Amino acid sequence: MKIFAIESSCDETACAVVEDGRRVLSSVIASQVEEHRLYGGVVPEIASRRHAEAITGVADKALSDAGVSLDGIDAVAVTYAPGLIGALLIGVNFAKGIALAKNKPLIPVHHLRSHIAANYIAHPSLEPPFLCLVVSGGHSHIIEVQSYTEFRVLGRTRDDAAGEAYDKAARALGYPYPGGVEIDRAAKRGDKTHYKLPRPKVVGSPYDFSFSGLKTAVVNLIHNAGQKGEAVVKEDVAAAFQDAVSEILVSRTMAAAAETRAKTLVLAGGVSANSGLRARMQAACETQEVALYMPPLSLCGDNAAMVGAQGYYEFRAGNTASMDLNAVASLSIER
Q1: How far apart (Å, rounded) are the C-alpha atoms in residues 7 and 158?
Q2: What distance in Å separates the CA atoms of residue 129 and residue 213, rounded to the nearest whole number?
Q3: With contact defined as beta carbons under 8 Å apart, do 156 and 208 qualify?
Q4: Which helix (H) or strand (E) holds 305?
Q5: What b-and-e string marks burial along 153-175, b requiring 16 or more CB atoms within 10 Å of the CB?
Q6: Which of 183, 230, 291, 327 is the most exposed place for a label (fewest CB within 10 A)?
Q7: DSSP state, residue 16
Q8: Domains in the chain, please, with CATH?
Q9: Are 156 and 141 spatial neighbours (Cβ–Cβ below 8 Å)?
């Protein structure tokens, strides 16, 4: 089964053709990062306009690279939630147009579900059930993946997501957007023990996260040093921050794995590309004898191949949509 997939939830316009949920025939991404870097973050209105401008060309190239036409595909899958509402609407309406014109099934795909499904592409032997840590610019979740289309949230962020905290801390340090990759690079040159940063906890919710206070601690550290006329070693702050975030994410995920007796752990989302997180998670899984699956860096960020992968399993479960499908800015993965 060949699925034409569309992703436009934030600032990447992406299309792909995926066969049977595991084989990627094509994957094309048009990134807007250089333009949004001028503003220090994603500007929703600009993102929506750029999606509208790019999506036809990206779709054409994805079909051409796969060697198929719209008549040769079996269904259309699209990210419909969660994300920037204007950006999502571009992809949803484009997908509806194709499905209507070509009389193809329309498959709505949840963004977090597709991030998890990126691992199905990278690891053909991976099958549910397993535990998954999804970390990105807008999400930080510990999820029990019970089947390809059944999920239970064990923990989530109460404020900033890990990726959002990375970007805000990076801005305070004077690094350009996107900040996560900049802090990752700087952390490799820094001393993580030079500065002490907190490890916030949510009382009564051992698997939930809170990164707002950690981000604020970085901002205060920089401001206090400036008021005293002291120089801040940016690389050391970056290393301390990355160490704190990685420790928080890994410790709570491994605690959840121990309680649920999970023997398979999956990492997903844009922040799963972070070298500090990957190394700490690998070490923790080896200690607890848990099998770890991580996506390659090419599948960590937003892409349409992962949408096509999850779309295949949604279709098999009978999850299709009619022409009244709408975009949704915020929606639980459990829905």
Answers
A1: 26
A2: 33
A3: yes
A4: helix 305-316
A5: bbbbbeebbbbbbbbbbbbbbeb
A6: 230
A7: E
A8: 2-117+299-316 (3.30.420.40), 127-297 (3.30.420.40)
A9: yes
> Alpha-carbon distance 93 to 327, whole Å?
9
Asked whether 277 and 271 are in contact (CB, 8 A), the reply is yes
Strands 23-31 and 12-19: antiparallel
- Could you write out the DSSP letters of every residue in 33-99? HHHHHTTTS--HHHHHHHHHHHHHHHHHHHHHHHT--GGG-SEEEEEEESS-HHHHHHHHHHHHHHH
What is the share, in percent, of the chain residues with pLDDT greater than 90? 98
Within a 10 A sphere around the Cβ of 298, how many other Cβ atoms?
14
pLDDT (mean) for 66-84: 98
pLDDT band at 138 (very low <50, low <70, confident <90, very high): confident
The mean per-residue pLDDT over the stretch 266-276 comes to 96
SS3 track for 157-211: ECCCCHHHHHHHHHHHHCCCCCHHHHHHHHHCCCCCCCCCCCCCCCCCCCCCECC
Which residues in 96-113 are b (16+ Cβ under 10 Å) and which e? bebbeeeebebbbbbbbb
Nearest-angstrom CA–CA distance, 142 and 155: 5
Helices 162-173 and 234-260, axial angle in degrees (round to 10): 170
Our CA angle for 157, 83, 274, nearest 5°, is 55
Token pair of 27, please?
């994957």
Task: Return the percentage of the chain with pLDDT > 70, whole number.
Answer: 100
At residue 245, does pLDDT exceed 90?
yes
DSSP states of 13-25 as a string? EEEEEEETTTEEE
Q: Is 291's pLDDT higher than 90?
A: yes
Q: What are residue 178's phi and psi, to 5 degrees? A: -80, 135
pLDDT digits (tens, 9 = 90+) for 98-117: 999 999 999 999 999 999 99
Per the DSSP assignment, residues forming a β-bridge with 16 are 5, 27
